[in-house]
Design a protein that fits this description.
globular
Length: 308
C-alpha cells in the first residue's frame, strides 16, 4: 500500500477516535452535573482506553508526515503548522481520484498531480472562487455548473447540471459556498483543516505568514468599515491561508517532479506581487538536522522490516 494512502487512513481513524473521546468526555461531564445517569466510573475506564488509542494513532500520523520532504525540507521551519496538520492536509488530497481509478478504465491523475494549478487546489479546499448566478436582489441562487444527487434513497449518484439562467440573473465570480439542493463544490474536511488548523495555528503561533493576515486585516478595517469584525477576520485569514496553500501546492509538486506555474492573477491578470515561500521560513539551519533525523527513522524502519 502507498505510504501516503496508509497515512490518510490513519488520519481518518485518528479523527474518528478523537470524536469518540470528546463525546465520551462530554457524557462524563453530563453525568457529573446530573444531566445524565451514566456510569461515570465505567465511562472513565473507556476514556483511558480511547486516549491510549488516540495517542498511538497520533504518533503514527506524525511519524508518517515527518518522513515526507514537505516536512523536513520546508514545514519544520514554518511556525504554526505541525506534523499532525501536515498529515491531515496530505491525507485529504492524496486520495483524490483514487476511487474513480479503481472503478473506471479511464485513469485520472491522483493526489497533488490532479491539481495542475493552485486555483484548482484552492477550489477543492473551499477557499477558491467559483462562477455563480446571482438574481436581481443580489442573492446567489445557483452555480454556473455543479452537481446534484439524483436517484432513489440508497441508489443516489452525483450528476452534473448546468442550470439555465432566468431573466434578471447575472453571472458573478464569488467565493464558493454551500447552496441548498446542490452538492458542495469542495472538500469540507479539507476546508476545516485549512482555515481552523493552518490558519488558526499560524495566527496563534505568530508565524511569519501572520504578517499577511495582519496586513490584510488592517486593509479591511480601513476599506471595509461597514463589515463586522469577524467578517474582516475571516477574510484576512482566508487570504493568508491561500498564500500558504499556494506554497504547499508548489512544494509538493516540486518534490513529486511535477510542473508548477504562477497563479492565474499573475500569469493572466497582470498582478506583480509574488509571495516567495522563502520569506516565511523561520529556521533554515534546522532543515539539515530534521532531514538527518527523518533519514535515520527510515533506516530504522527498513531494519525492522528485515527483522520481522
Amino acid at each position: 500500500m502507498n505510504k501516503l494512502v496508509g497515512m490518510s487512513q490513519d488520519v481518518k481513524l485518528f479523527k474518528a477516535t478523537q470524536k469518540l473521546r470528546t463525546g465520551l468526555r462530554e457524557r462524563i461531564r453530563a453525568s457529573e452535573q446530573g444531566r445524565s445517569n451514566g456510569d461515570v466510573v465505567r465511562y472513565g475506564e473507556w476514556l483511558k482506553e480511547f486516549e491510549k488509542i488516540e495517542k498511538t494513532l497520533q504518533r503514527h500520523v506524525e511519524l508518517g508526515s515527518k518522513r515526507h520532504p514537505l516536512w523536513y525540507e520546508w514545514l519544520c521551519n514554518v511556525r504554526g503548522v505541525g506534523k499532525s496538520t501536515l498529515a491531515q492536509l496530505m491525507g485529504e488530497i492524496v486520495t483524490v481520484n483514487m476511487i474513480w481509478n479503481q472503478k473506471n478504465k479511464e485513469q485520472k491523475p491522483e493526489g497533488i498531480a490532479a491539481f495542475n494549478t493552485v486555483s484548482a487546489l484552492w477550489r477543492y479546499a473551499g477557499i477558491g472562487l467559483g462562477k455563480y448566478w446571482q438574481n436581481e436582489k443580489g442573492d446567489i441562487v445557483a452555480p454556473k455548473k455543479g452537481h446534484k444527487m439524483v436517484g432513489k434513497e440508497g441508489e443516489k449518484e452525483r450528476v452534473l447540471f448546468e442550470p439555465e439562467p432566468k431573466e434578471g440573473w447575472e453571472l458573478v465570480e464569488v467565493r464558493d459556498r454551500p447552496l441548498e439542493g446542490w452538492c458542495l463544490p469542495y472538500n469540507k474536511r479539507l476546508k476545516t483543516v485549512c482555515l481552523e488548523f493552518v490558519g488558526g495555528g499560524i495566527i496563534r503561533a505568530n508565524g511569519k505568514y501572520r504578517a499577511i493576515y495582519d496586513e490584510q486585516k488592517a486593509y479591511y478595517e480601513m476599506d471595509r468599515p461597514d463589515w463586522p469584525q469577524m467578517r474582516r477576520h475571516y477574510a484576512a485569514r482566508r487570504k493568508m491561508v491561500k498564500v500558504f496553500m499556494s506554497h504547499f501546492w508548489e512544494q509538493w509538486r516540486v518534490f513529486e517532479g511535477l510542473p508548477t506555474r504562477l497563479p492565474y492573477v499573475i500569469e493572466k491578470l497582470g498582478h506583480t506581487h509574488i509571495y516567495d515561500w522563502r520569506e516565511f521560513v523561520e529556521r533554515p539551519e534546522d532543515i539539515l538536522r530534521d532531514k538527518i533525523e527523518a533519514d535515520s527513522l527510515m533506516d530504522l524502519e527498513e531494519v525492522e522490516a528485515v527483522v520481522v
